[in-house]
Design brief:
Layout (H helix, E strand, L loop, with lengths): L4 E5 L4 E7 L5 E8 H10 L4 E6 L3 H10 L3 E6 H4 L9 H12 L12 H32 L8 H14 L9 H31 L1 H6 L7 H11 L8 H8 L3 E3 L8 E4 L5 H20 L6 H9 L2 H22 L7 H4 L1
């Protein structure tokens, strides 16, 4: 008897396969080494294969799809409710199969190699920026112990860098060997970050959809690149609200007994996209507060009745919905008539 549904619990070296027939009866439970996975699925007749969406899931999705199987990636949070007690690889694989059988299950589209390469650019840049911030904060903190402080931002840190390189008398000579390698690392990271940003901007200028997204206020080349790399054409989302919810910019819902309760934003989904959209929205709303003549009627109304941080998140959610509309329509952004006037 052949399995019509197969779940695969992936790992670094030891994988667990679980197969069921059309009636839900277990056909096999097999433990596989990494080198055995492709050969095993090559022998199986075409089936629906479920994999938890985690590290290397997109690679295995592409590999098994090339062998003729229909591969579906399931978010890990949606698999968890089906896991029985006393967690094992076999029970994890069975839980994936149970989730796969649900008719209302949501799946993660398999990303292409180009999408994952684009995401790698963004992830590397994000990591380097984080490391650079850590190093800068470390230098500032150590110098503050000696009473040496400077203004915030790049100009302030440039002043501190010059003092360290020149061996300023305010800094103990014994501390300079500890500070100079940190400054050298900051400068090296700045060069690497600039190179990655240049590649991202170049890719955004060359892509038609990314160029359309940059016509939206609050979205630059880096944000447009991140949207296309993460969401593709957006065809997996039923509506603009679903897209905003996937980013984590919609309110949490808790309803019971006919009572509707909405909390803060869910903060689930793609954290990088949420951060970039929020930063862009922050710039827009600060500009709208200081130059109300250039703000839209919606922005003025939002700032008049909501705190600044709430207004920024609302603008980020609105920007996400506009981005979805452009992804699906392929048309450039059109400013509201009131704002244009």
């Amino acid at each position: 008897m052949n399995a019509t549904m197969i779940s695969l619990d992936i790992a670094k070296s030891v994988f667990q396969a679980h197969g069921e027939d059309g009636s839900g009866h277990v056909v096999f439970q097999k433990r596989l080494r990494r080198s055995q996975v492709e050969a095993f699925f090559a022998k199986q007749p075409p089936a629906t294969v479920g994999i938890e969406a985690c590290g290397s899931a997109h690679y295995w999705g592409r590999t098994l799809r090339a062998l003729g199987h229909e591969v579906k990636l399931i978010p890990a949070a949606y698999v968890q409710p089906f896991v029985k007690r006393n967690k094992t690889d076999a029970r994890d694989a069975a839980a994936i199969c149970a989730a796969l059988a649900r008719p209302d299950m949501s799946f993660v589209p398999i990303k292409s190699i180009e999408q994952q390469a684009a995401r790698a650019l963004e992830g590397s840049r994000e990591l380097l920026v984080k490391q650079q911030t850590q190093l800068i904060n470390s230098v500032r903190g150590r110098l503050a112990e000696f009473g040496v402080v400077a203004a915030q931002g790049r100009r302030g840190f440039a002043t501190l860098t010059a003092q360290i390189k020149d061996g300023d008398s305010q800094i103990p000579q014994a501390a300079l060997p500890a500070l100079r390698p940190l400054v050298a690392q900051v400068e090296s990271l700045a060069t690497a970050i600039a190179e990655l940003e240049a590649k991202i901007v170049e890719a955004a200028k060359a892509d038609t959809v990314m160029r359309l997204l940059t016509t939206i206020p609050g979205i630059g080349a880096i944000t447009a690149h991140a949207i296309v790399a993460a969401a593709g054409t957006g065809e997996q989302f039923a509506s603009a609200r679903n897209f905003a919810a996937w980013i984590g910019l919609t309110p949490r819902q808790h309803s019971s007994g006919g009572k509707q309760r909405s909390g803060g934003i869910s903060r689930q989904g793609d954290r990088r996209l949420r951060t970039l959209l929020t930063l862009g929205a922050s710039t827009l709303m600060r500009s709208a507060r200081t130059r109300s003549d250039r703000a839209t009627a919606w922005q003025r109304a939002m700032l008049s009745r909501r705190p600044m941080k709430v207004a920024v998140v609302a603008q980020a959610a609105k920007t996400a919905r506009i981005a979805f509309a452009i992804l699906r329509s392929g048309e450039p952004y059109r400013a509201p008539q009131a704002a244009a006037a």
